[in-house]
Design goal:
8-stranded antiparallel beta barrel, 9 strands
């Protein structure tokens, strides 16, 4: 598994929510979370994300390597090398992904033990001029 070229570039966090097993939806970082994830063709990624505003509690940053299935959907495996939360440096982190439309990416980790499902929506960043 190499790097799916559709990931390459910068993506801005559009939304983050968690759905409990009973269907209740929560937005732990509020309605306007912030974040950016960048992917390069050598297989590295870097991400910063958290609640809107100036950072603080809940704000995360980490980087590492990634390899993902080709195509519009599949699995990407993140290997976190270092970051603001040492507990994230714990081996392969699997994320299911789907490119929903041009420039919109949904990523989901596996369901938690309690049945909760997190969803990250990323929008391709427009080029700055």
């Amino acid at each position: 598994m190499g790097m799916n070229s559709r990931f390459l570039g910068a993506w801005l966090l559009e939304s983050f929510e968690s759905e409990a097993a009973d269907g209740a939806v929560a937005r732990p970082w509020g309605d306007d979370p912030v974040g950016i994830i960048t992917w390069d063709e050598s297989g590295y990624f870097a991400v910063q994300l958290g609640p809107g505003g100036q950072g603080g509690p809940g704000y995360l940053s980490f980087f590492g390597t990634a390899a993902g299935d080709d195509g519009d959907s599949g699995v990407i495996v993140l290997k976190v090398l270092a970051g603001s939360a040492p507990e994230r440096v714990n081996g392969d982190q699997v994320r299911n992904f789907t490119f929903l439309e041009p420039g919109l990416l949904r990523m989901r980790p596996p369901k938690a033990a309690n049945g909760a499902q997190s969803t990250f929506m990323w929008r391709r960043a427009a080029a700055q001029t």
